[in-house]
Every structure is written in C-alpha cells, then in structure tokens.
Automatic annotation (TrEMBL):
Annotated organism of origin: Halomonas flagellata
NCBIfam families per the UniProt record, alphabetical: xanthine_xdhC (TIGR02964)
Boundaries of every XdhC Rossmann domain copy: 117-260
Residues in XdhC- CoxI domain copies: 23-85
Cited Pfam families: XdhC_C, XdhC_CoxI
The name this protein goes by in its record: Xanthine dehydrogenase accessory protein XdhC
InterPro entries recorded: D-isomer_DH_CS1 (IPR029752), MoCofactor_Util/Proc (IPR052698), NAD(P)-bd_dom_sf (IPR036291), Xanthine_DH_XdhC (IPR014308), XdhC_CoxI (IPR003777), XdhC_Rossmann_dom (IPR027051)
Length: 285
C-alpha cells in the first residue's frame, strides 16, 4: 500500500496552475515529469507535479519514490542552480515499493528571479517603468495607494504583481529582503513616508526617489529629523531618471532603469547608488 503525503504539504491547485503562477511571480520551483515507465507503476508517463521549498502541487502517485523525487528537487532548489536532471527509480529496489515497476522522472529546476524591483506609483512614469522592465528576468512588485490606478494591460503579466497599498508602512513591511525600490507616487507626503519606511528596514538593495534636488533637500531635512543618519541618507538616489532634458515619462523611465541596471548586475561592488547621473547625462547628450 502506497504511503500518503501529509495533507499539510498538499495544495489543491493543479500543477499547471501552480507552474503558471510561480513562473509569473518569479518564485523558485521545480517541475517533475514522469517520462518513462515499465511494469506496474502508480502513474503513467506525462504525469507531473510542481515542487517548492515547502509545498507540493499534484502527485506522481505517492509512495517512497515520490518522496525521493521531492527530496531531489528540493536539494537542487537549495543550490539555486537551474537545469534538468533525470532520476531513475526501481520501485522494488531503490524505492522499496510493492509495485515492482521502473520509472524515470525528469526534474527541471527554475531558481526564480534573483532580482525583485518594487515600484511605488502607477502614474505615467510608473507605467513606462513596468513596460520597460517586462523583458528583464526580474520580479516586479507594483504598488499604488489608489485602488483604480493600475491599467487593464497589467493584469496577468508574467513576473508582475499589482498591489493596492493604501498603508505605506504595511506595503514596505511586506517586501522581501534585498529589494530594489523606486518611489514615484502622486503624493509627496506618501513618497516621504515610503522612503522613511524603506530606510528603517535597512535591508533594501537600493532606493531611488523621483523628484527635484529641492524636493530631496526638503526630504533630507525631515528624514534627518526623524532619526536617519547622513550615511543612511546618502544611499538614496534622488533625483532618478536624468534624461538629458527630455522630461517625457518614457525618457525618465528609461534613464531610471539605466541608472539601476549596473547596480543590479554587479551588487558585489557595494555601491548602492547605481550609475552616476552625471555619466548618464553625458551619454544622453
């Protein structure tokens, strides 16, 4: 009789729905596919299951060989390396099951996006940022305090999650560690509250704020009074999106991503400011 997995590890979501969601959100997962079978086996070739670090979606039939498949997938997920491996199971030998058949399982590991970009603001520049970031292998968390701010085209975009975020503190608290954040909402007070909350987390990979030098001077004074040190405040990039005089939303968004890319690609530099705006200005001019 085949062993049953504890129900706490089983989710009712189908493997293909889970695969779509996990790939859309850029989260680590593995796809296990039974590719061949001989003799008596629990499932047929083509059976699939999706495995994450703490959850399993669907089944290859249960029993010891399924647990071994899960363990092998999680070992590869822990390494963070993508790729495919083929696992062979003799159900009467390696897996100790009474079926007595033979199964080959292909395990495909998707380590997920290593970069998460949090964008606060769904205005014109925010929309252009999301469009431009779409081809990049990033997970994008798009926030706005207005519940009707997100355009219809954003629904279901791979790697994109739209979050209604009326409370800046709660929105920032829900972010993963190591996030790159860009703040560009419709409201200066909201911008300042977000920057304050992001700085207090002390685990963001980088932080950029849209606006003018005078806006940052005002913010800096208030944030210093709120207890942030000059060293901490020096890590904020403001203004972002220097575009050589072109102030269209597309140009600002393009410049903002150009400033951010070197920081995302080479985090070992320890530089939290990304591309120097003066360098970018020379490129555009």
């Amino acid at each position: 009789m085949m062993a049953r997995r504890p129900e706490r590890e089983r989710r009712p979501e189908s493997w293909h729905a889970a695969l779509h969601r996990l790939q859309r959100d850029g989260l680590p997962h593995a796809l296990a596919t039974q590719v061949t079978s001989a003799g008596s086996t629990p499932r047929e070739p083509g059976a699939r299951m999706v495995i994450t670090a703490d959850t399993v979606f669907d089944t290859l039939g249960g029993g010891t060989f399924e647990w071994q498949t899960i363990a092998a997938a999680r070992e590869r997920l822990a390494s963070g390396e993508p790729g495919m491996t083929l696992e062979a199971f003799s159900l009467g030998g390696r897996s100790g099951q009474c079926c007595g058949g033979f199964v080959n399982v292909l395990i495909e590991v998707f380590p997920g996006s290593r970069t998460t970009l949090a964008i606060f603001g769904a205005g014109h520049v925010g929309q252009e940022l999301v469009r431009l970031a779409a081809p990049l292998p990033w997970r994008v968390l798009w926030h706005d305090s207005r519940d009707d701010a997100f355009p219809d085209w954003a629904a279901g975009q791979p790697g994109l999650e739209c979050r209604h975020a009326p409370d800046p503190q709660a929105a920032v608290a829900a972010l993963p560690a190591g996030v790159h954040a860009l703040v560009l909402t419709h409201d200066h007070a909201e911008d300042r509250a977000l920057v304050d909350a992001l700085l207090r987390r002390a685990d963001t990979a980088s932080l950029g704020l849209i606006g003018s030098k005078s806006k940052w001077a005002s913010f800096r004074t208030r944030l210093r009074a709120a207890g942030h040190s000059d060293e901490t405040l020096s890590g904020v990039r403001c203004p972002i999106g220097h575009s050589g005089g072109d102030k269209t939303p597309y140009a600002i968004a393009l410049a903002a991503l150009a400033e951010l890319l070197p920081l995302v690609e080479t985090p070992e530099r320890g530089d939290q400011r990304g591309l120097d705006p003066d360098e970018l200005r020379r490129v555009f001019s």
